[in-house]
Amino acid sequence: MKTLVLSAVAAVIVFGAAPAGAQQAHTITIENLRFEPQTLTVKRGDRVVWANKDLVLHTATAAGSFDSHGIAANASWTYTARTPGRYEYMCTFHPAMKATLVVE
């Protein structure tokens, strides 16, 4: 049985395929007072990283669901998407900055 497991791992390394159900990381860039992409769809268990490329503090806040608190310039915040749904979020410091995270 150990040989089979090691062979499967070797196959993943050699062929570059991700195992079924593998979690992925997605990046949302904060730049020019915008979240990019505006809408991101991820799978349950995936990680979402908000990377602040602006010169000012921002948040990624979905009321009652997640809140990054302040993300400093040139810093990031990571969230693991656990509950399926559609999450409208915003920057609490700049309320015109809005985007959507969809978790399947």
Protein architecture, described:
The chain has about 100 residues and is mainly beta. The chain has 1 helix and 9 strands. The chain has one helix at about 1-15, and strands at about 25-30, 35, 40, 45-50, 60, 65, 75-80, 85-90, 100-104. The protein has a 4-stranded mixed sheet with strand order 2-1-4-7, with no helix packed on it. Strands 3-9-8 form a 3-stranded mixed sheet, with no helix packed on it. Strands 5-6 form a two-stranded antiparallel sheet. A hairpin with a 7-residue loop joins strand 8 and strand 9 (about 100-104). The longest helix is centred in the N-terminal third of the chain and has 14 residues, at about 1-15. The protein starts with a helix and ends with a strand. The relative contact order is 0.22.
- SSE run: HEEEEEEEEE
Quaternary organization:
single chain
Backbone structural class: mainly beta
Helical proportion, percent range: 10-25%
Give the rounded overall mean pLDDT: 86
Instruction: Give the overall shape.
Output: globular
User: Cα-atom Rg, whole angstroms?
Assistant: 17 Å
Strand order of the largest sheet: 2-1-4-7
- How many strand units? 9
Uncertain runs: 1-19
Fraction in beta strands: 35-45%
Total of DSSP H or I helical runs spanning 4+ residues: 1
